[in-house]
């Protein structure tokens, strides 16, 4: 049996968020932007849609924050939470070392803030980043992998 692929966990960022003096929920903001986008684009797996159907529908309808829904998932984004297409895109775009997601998040939302952890999760910030994610996904769908993935460093080929 294969181990699940963990894209990100908020707990990996708790210490850094604490060092910045921010509330713990800020450790998941960067993940939840992508998670909400996956929900809105039907890239969430069937089990996740049926585990808490009312919450899933409420997020889709804008009645519940994706941040609140994400808390029920132990603040983790794992491959079994996504469809095959969602995983293919996340593997190319959200992957920390080779994907462009964090670069897009910083370029779109960080501005003069001290760190990416200071970016609030709200409708304005999500809406701005959603446009970038939509554009990246559209390019990826046409086969433009370079639009979502960075070139690897020479030493990364041996990992």
Written description of the protein model:
This protein is mainly α. The chain has one domain. The protein has eight helices and two strands; from the N terminus they run E-H-H-H-H-H-E-H-H-H. The chain has a two-stranded antiparallel ribbon. Helix 7 runs antiparallel to helix 8. It is globular, with a radius of gyration of 15 Å. The C terminus is likely disordered. Pfam families: DUF7832. This is DUF7832 domain-containing protein.
Which helices and strands, and how do they pair?
Elements: E1 6-9, H1 14-19, H2 29-40, H3 46-51, H4 53-60, H5 66-71, E2 76-78, H6 84-93, H7 101-110, H8 123-141
Antiparallel strand pairs: 1-2
Mean pLDDT: 91
Shape: globular
Q: Which value, in Å, is the CA radius of gyration?
A: 15 Å
The level of helicity is: 40-55%
Number of helices: 8
Strand content: under 5%
Main beta sheet: strand number and arrangement? 2 strands, antiparallel
The ordered H/E elements are: EHHHHHEHHH
Q: How many strand elements?
A: 2
Strand arrangement across the biggest beta sheet = 1-2
How would you classify the helix and strand content by structural class? mainly alpha
Termini separation: 21 Å
Which spans have pLDDT < 50 for at least 5 consecutive residues?
154-159
Tally of separate domains: 1
Features:
single chain; 159 residues; mainly alpha; two-stranded antiparallel ribbon; 8 helices; disordered C terminus
């Amino acid at each position: 049996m294969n181990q699940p692929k963990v894209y990100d966990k908020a707990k990996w960022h708790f210490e850094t968020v604490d060092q910045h003096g921010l509330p713990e929920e800020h450790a998941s903001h960067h993940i939840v932007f992508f998670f909400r986008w996956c929900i809105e684009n039907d890239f969430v797996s069937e089990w996740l849609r049926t585990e808490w159907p009312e919450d899933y529908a409420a997020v889709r309808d804008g009645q519940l924050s994706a941040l609140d829904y994400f808390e029920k998932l132990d603040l983790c984004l794992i491959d079994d939470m996504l469809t095959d297409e969602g995983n293919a895109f996340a593997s190319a775009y959200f992957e920390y070392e080779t994907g462009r997601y964090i670069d897009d998040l910083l370029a779109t939302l960080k501005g003069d803030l001290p760190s990416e952890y200071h970016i609030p999760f709200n409708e304005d910030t999500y809406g701005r980043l959603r446009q970038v994610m939509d554009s990246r996904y559209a390019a990826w769908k046409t086969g433009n992998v370079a639009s979502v993935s960075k070139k690897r460093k020479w030493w990364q080929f041996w990992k």
